[in-house]
Amino acid sequence: MQDGPGTPPDPAEFEARRVRLLAGAQTTLNDHADLLAPLAAAFGDAGHELYLVGGSVRDALLGRLGTDLDFTTDARPDTVRGILENYADTVWDTGIEFGTLSAVTYDAAGIEQQIEVTTYRADSYDGVSRNPEVVFGDTLEGDLIRRDFTVNAMAVRLHPDGRHEFCDPLDGMDALLVGLLDTPAAPEQSFADDPLRMLRACRFVSQLGFSLAPRVFRAMTEMTAEIDRITVERVRAELDKTILGDYPIDGINMLCEAGLADRVLPEVPGMKLERDEHLQHKDVYWHSLTVLKQAIDLEPAGPDLVLRWAALLHDVGKPATRAAKPGGGVTFHHHEVVGAKMVRKRMRALKYSKQMIEDVSGLVFLHLRFHGYGEGQWSDSAVRRYVSDAGDLLPRLHRLVRADCTTRNKRRAAKLQASYDSLEHRIAEIEEKEDLARVRPDLDGNEIMTLLGLAPGPDVGRAWAFLKELRLDRGPLDRDEAEAELVRWWAEQNGGPQNDHQQNDRPQNGDPA
């Protein structure tokens, strides 16, 4: 992170960094000349200005320009449409009533580039909805001042001859150099216009590692109730972007410190009330953030949204399950069960997909299971059940369990990791002999019905469940053994033993006797 707002930067270094960032952005834009020059020429030929704007400029300066580029222009939407239709492969209305059109084209390397062009705007808000009353503007400055943060209120004019002219009327570059998020206008007005900007502030803290200007933080803490005007879908999207950022601990902590989490994700600040049972961390809240950090360190290939949510929420059930132990200390019995229920409830409220809810709550429910492993006393049956219950979540469960070790006692930490190494080794040994990823009964439904003379129905499901439990307990059985065990079990379910002749005399496939 750059120098904080309370640390005056060295003027010479400050200027040198500015020059480096501008030079780097120039190189980045030159690399996109095959995309930008024809677009600038098309607008210039039509007598209009074109600016790269907002987050695209910020990211160009930071050397992280992506494939979604934002532009603004003095041309009205109908004119923009005509220009884009002659330039791009595909054009559509993103929000024509807001002056925005989008297009897709491809650069010289064949990489898809999505561009969004919006007419200058000078919006007004009614204080109820976050959707503005759109008024098209006439100046770049008027358009920039309505934006969320000064680091997103810079622009680069694109000239038809390929020149790039940096425009920064609101000193966004200064804010960028010191890593500061501030609003172009008064933050109270900015957040009243669009309360989602408060969540976006936390998201940018997570993505960029920046700090909030004191007046921005103060306004957020005073205006948290305004977030209730935002739809849950928008809230969910910002929460996901926050947890997927490069600095998610900072973003989530800011969400809590500002009081916004109390309204959109209250289970997380609620953990501040509880001390971690190992007393190695300030409280369960900070323990959970530490687990999130350690889970991120274990991600094999980029951000894993399911793992990150599970790491953050794995202990949300502790406040509701806290109980004093005789002689001192506390327990949190069954907090994984309570926590899984809490996760499902919160994620349903945020309208996550069914699969996302099942995956995150499933990891929360399973995260303590390993601690029964002890010194490796689990039977092969217990190992099979661990793998079977985790299913496709097993690789994530491995990472979550390892991340959940936050003790500062090096000997204890090493012992826990060695114990989990042992469990993974046991899983690998069993997997060499049998397919643990798809533990199924040794007989299928049709074979069960034929053997027991059953029609499709609940009894077949019960028999299948019995065979799966048997498979988990004893591993793969040969066909004769599986059939004998099923016949024995079915006889017990029906009041006593029966011989093969009785079994074969049973009605077949539901036919009457």
From TrEMBL:
Residue ranges of domain tRNA nucleotidyltransferase/poly(A) polymerase RNA and SrmB- binding in the record: 209-268
Pfam family, one: HD
Coiled-coil annotated spans: 413-440
Listed SUPFAM superfamilies: Nucleotidyltransferase, Poly A polymerase C-terminal region-like
MF GO annotations: metal ion binding; nucleotide binding; nucleotidyltransferase activity; tRNA binding
Cofactor(s) listed: Mg(2+)
Gene Ontology terms: biological process: tRNA processing
Poly A polymerase head domain boundaries: 50-179
InterPro entries, per database record: Bact_CCA-adding_enz_type3_sf, HD/PDEase_dom, HD_domain, HDIG_dom, NT_sf, PolA_pol_head_dom, PolyA_RNA-bd, tRNA_adenylyltransferase
Keyword Magnesium: yes
Chain segments carrying region Disordered: 490-513
Keywords: Coiled coil, Magnesium, Metal-binding, Nucleotide-binding, Nucleotidyltransferase, Transferase, tRNA processing
Residue spans of biased composition, Polar residues class: 495-507
Keyword Nucleotide-binding: yes
Chain ranges of the HD domain: 285-380
Residues in the signal sequence: none
PANTHER family in the cross-refs: CCA TRNA NUCLEOTIDYLTRANSFERASE 1, MITOCHONDRIAL
Stored NCBIfam families: HDIG, tRNA_CCA_actino
Protein name (Swiss-Prot/TrEMBL): CCA tRNA nucleotidyltransferase
Organism: Dietzia psychralcaliphila
